[in-house]
Specification:
The complex is a heterodimer of chains A (about 120) and B (about 110). Chain A has about 120 residues and is mainly beta. Chain A is built from no helices and twelve strands. In chain B, strands 2, 4, 5, 6, 9, 10 and 11 form a seven-stranded mixed beta sheet that branches. Chain B has a four-stranded antiparallel beta sheet with strand order 1-3-8-7, with no helix packed on it. The N and C termini of chain B lie far apart (about 35 Å). The chains are: A mainly beta (about 120), B mainly beta (about 110).
Amino acid sequence: AQKVTQTQTSISVMEKTTVTMDCVYETRDSSYFLFWYKQTASGEIVFLIRQDSYKKENATEGHYSLNFQKPKSSIGLIITATQIEDSAVYFCAMRASSSFSKLVFGQGTSLSVVP
Amino acid sequence: DMKVTQMPRYLIKRMGENVLLECGQDMSHETMYWYRQDPGLGLQLIYISYDVDSNSEGDIPKGYRVSRKKREHFSLILDSAKTNQTSVYFCASSPDWGEGAEQFFGPGTRLTVL
């Protein structure tokens, strides 16, 4: 069975600093995809960034990047130069190749960016 | 304009009443999903639909059923709603180009069962 765990319930950082959110996953599949989604205060959920398990390079997208440590089954989300509007709940998710398109989500980490 | 819509956005029902939540997408995505979100539990998959009349149970299907008669429309039905089905329900869709495709989410429906 697939499982995704986010142990950080909430984080608070100063504006313009860098933050890392942790995520560990469990799967027996050799091929899988890891995603990060952001849920704003209004409830909107948007896709941020994806890491393919077979790629060694860490994915980057704007001021989002990933720290993919495959031996540790870990996929951290790094946000650089944080802005107030980055305050949101961030979800890590995984889709294994054998999962028939099913996505498993972590519990989420609430990020607060303060001025 | 690519989007997923959900109706209604807010709904209050009494225990035992039937509930119909509707979802639409204008992107011709084959795969659609229904999730519920409860505090501290993230998003839990209720049902997944791979295309018209091709539906599969997710992780928590008990108490729910779905209907997909058109590719762009996916309904979630609660027959005789229970108080523990009070939650926020999200619909999502994804293109079918592979397992790496991201999901597009609707705005959510907040359901309260009294």
